[in-house]
Task: structure prediction
Amino acid sequence: MKRMTMRISTVIKKCKLLWRFISNRDFLISFVATMLGVLVAFWLNDFWHQNYQDKITKHRLHLVVLESQYNGSIAHEVLKVYSNINSMCFSIKRVDSTAARIAFEDGNLFKLLPFHKVSLIKSYIESMDTLNQSLDTYSDYLFSVHFKRDSQNDEFVSTVRNNCAAAIAISIVLRRSLNSYFNSDEYQHDKLLKMEKQIKEVSQKALRGEVKPSKIP
Result:
C-alpha cells in the first residue's frame, strides 16, 4: 500500500513539473510562433504554386486566342478558294488546334474558366478537325476522279464551304470569349511581320537558287 501511495505521489509530482514547464509563458509564445510560422510557410508555398500555375494557364489561353486568329484567317482564305460551288480546285492550307488542345488538357483550366467556356474550346477543336477532314476528303475525291467533274462535286464543295464558315464563326466567338487573356504586349506584331518579311526574302532567293540550307544567307 505504501509503495502504491509513493508511486502515485511521484506521478503527481512529475505531472506538476510538466504543467509548470508547459505553462511557462515564454515556451507557449515560442511554440505558438513556431506553429504559425509553419502554417504561413505552407500557405505561402501553396499560394506561390497556384499563382505560378495560373500564369501558365493564362499564357496558354493567350496562345489559344492567337491561334484562333490565324485559323480564322486561314479558313477565310480557304472559303474564297471554294467561293464558286462549281470549283474543281483544292487548297493545301490546313488549320491547326495544337494550342487549344494543350490548354484543354490543362488541369488548372476549370479554376480560371466557367464550364461553358471550356466547352467552347472543345467545340473549337472539333470544328478545326472537321474542316481539315473535309478538305482532305475533297482532295482525295478530286484525285480519284482525276479532276473530272461528276455529280458529287457540288456536294463536296458545299460541305467544305459550310465547314469553313463554321470554323470562322467559332474562331471569332472563341476570341471574344477569351480576349481578356490575350496580352498584346506578348504578341510583338512588328517583330512577327519582320520575320515574315525575312522568310519571303529568303524564299525568293531559294527560287533563284541563291540559298544553301547549310549556310545562313
User: Anything to note?
Assistant: The chain is about 75% helix and 0% strand.
